Every structure is written in C-alpha cells, then in structure tokens.
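Hi all, posting the design record for the shared folder.

TITLE: backbone redesign
STEP: 1 of 1
STRUCTURE INPUT:
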C-alpha cells in the first residue's frame, strides 16, 4: 500500500492567509512588518531559499531586506551587519543563513543576535527556551501566539505532524540527526508534545533496527554521497510516519534523505521532497516575523 503523502502546500496556504490578515491589520497602524535576511556568499541553496522567502513574503505583505556579505569578508563584517540590524527600528526580524564559512566563529555570531528579533531561534536565549520547554503552545495550535521562536524547520516538523493529526503522546519517535539547527531542537519540541524520543545519527550502531522500532521517524541526517546514500527500505517498517527533513539537489532535481519511492511502499505516511517541509518552514518564519512585529510594537 502506498503511503499517504504529507504534502505541506495546504498547511502553508492556511498559515500564509492568517499571516496576511495579521499583516493587513498591523499595517493599518502605519508600518509594514520587515524581515532582514543576512546571506554570506552565494551558495545556490541559500539563494534559492531566499527567493522562496521573497516570494512568500510578498504574498503576505511583509517587506524583505536583503544583506549580502562577501564570503571572504572578515568576521567583524558580519558582526557589524547584525549590530546595525539590532538597532534598526524598521527591522522586526533577522534571519542569518547558516552554516557560515569556516573562517567565522558561528557560536560567537549567534551571540550577536538580539533575541526578540531572532526569528529562527539561533541565539542562546531562544535555544535555552527550546530546551526549557514551553516555546510552543501545549495544544500545538498553529495560530497560538508563542513566547519565543524555535528554529523554523524544527517547528515546521511539529506543525506538519499536528496538522495531519499524527498522535505523539506516548509514541516512540526516532530523530536521525543531532545538529543544533534541526536534530536537537526538534527532539526537545517532540518531548514537549509528550513523545518518547530517541536521538540517533549516522554513527549510531544498529541504526536500521532503532529506526524500524519507532512510531515516527524524523530524518535530518544531511546525507552525503548522493541519491545512492539515501535511507531505504531496510530502515523502515509498516505503520510508521516518516518526516524527511533533508534537501539535496543534483542534475536530476531535488531529493531528501529518504528514498521516497521505495519507502512510501512500506510506511503509512511520509513527507515528499520537494513539497513537504520547505514551504511550511518559510510560512513558519513569516509567522515569527509577524509575532516579532507585534511584540516590538
């Protein structure tokens, strides 16, 4: 039986409509919400993501301000750009594309982010809120105001699961990936939803056995080696829900960490790539910008 594809388009459309309505109400006060995007260099993935943000921001009425820094620039140039945005009253939210070049201390840069403008949850203040719990509504309702901003992709995972009524209470969820961008924060958000979480990674022994034992599998491993290295049939079992966070691209097109064609014949539900988490991640980002705008107002 072919799995149910957890397409993010419908959820994204609903989220964007709510944000658009909020933007219209906010703009009546005399100012348009503004997101600043800081990009270092011209990584194709970053450029494509920025275009996606620009397209959706325009759709809801949020102004996008793009700051591009040469990838050979010193760390001080990035710090100066962030400090300028921190004090710019016309900017409500700041998004810094990562990973940063190896010549730049990423931890130090994240410390420069002012928390109430950190709409992708990378500052120490926002990350601590994720680990302390309560950053999302206990009911997980997409339209409930948040007290902080979780990393957008990690939050998008929770939104997709809840939108599709995937019960997490008491369920075993295996997260494959331990990055501070997705793996670790999504594990904390899942714990907030009363799931029982196991964090694995590509060095985990008997990874296939551990993944097959789960009710829900979130794959954010960032595979290397191309399409042939994707997680295939031996890692999954019938009845599972699979969230594929990976995004890769080659001459054949875009694909994720999971071999969707093969795995969809085994599991009950799976997010496609493209068409799964990507648009929900951007819609989550724009929701955060609107939250930040109203908080600062």
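Okay, here is what came back for every position:
SEQUENCE:
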């Amino acid at each position: 039986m072919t799995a149910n594809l957890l397409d993010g388009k419908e959820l994204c459309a609903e989220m964007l409509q709510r944000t658009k309505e909020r933007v219209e109400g906010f703009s009546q006060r005399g100012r348009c919400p503004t997101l600043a995007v800081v990009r270092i260099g011209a990584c194709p993935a970053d450029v494509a993501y920025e275009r996606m943000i620009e397209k959706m921001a325009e759709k809801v009425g949020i102004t996008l301000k793009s700051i591009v820094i040469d990838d050979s620039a010193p760390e001080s140039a990035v710090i100066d750009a962030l400090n300028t945005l921190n004090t710019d009253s016309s900017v409500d939210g700041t998004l810094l594309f990562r990973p940063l070049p190896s010549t730049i201390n990423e931890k130090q840069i994240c410390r420069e982010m002012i928390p109430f403008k950190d709409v992708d949850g990378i500052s120490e203040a926002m990350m601590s809120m994720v680990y302390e719990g309560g950053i999302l509504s206990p009911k997980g309702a997409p339209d409930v105001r948040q007290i902080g901003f979780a990393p957008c992709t990690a939050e998008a995972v929770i939104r997709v699961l809840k939108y599709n009524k995937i019960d997490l209470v008491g369920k075993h969820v295996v997260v494959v990936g331990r990055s501070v961008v997705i793996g670790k924060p999504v594990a904390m958000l899942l714990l907030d939803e009363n799931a029982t979480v196991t964090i694995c990674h590509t060095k985990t022994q008997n990874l296939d056995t551990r993944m097959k034992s789960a009710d829900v599998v979130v794959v954010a491993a960032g595979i290397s080696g191309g399409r042939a290295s994707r997680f295939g049939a031996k890692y999954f079992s019938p009845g599972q829900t699979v969230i594929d966070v990976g995004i890769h691209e080659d001459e054949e097109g875009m694909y994720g960490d999971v071999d969707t064609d093969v795995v969809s014949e085994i599991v009950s539900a799976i997010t496609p790539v493209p068409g799964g988490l990507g648009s929900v991640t951007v819609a989550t980002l724009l929701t955060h910008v609107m939250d930040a705008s109203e908080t600062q107002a």
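COMMENT: The radius of gyration is 19 Å.
Let me know if anyone wants the other runs.
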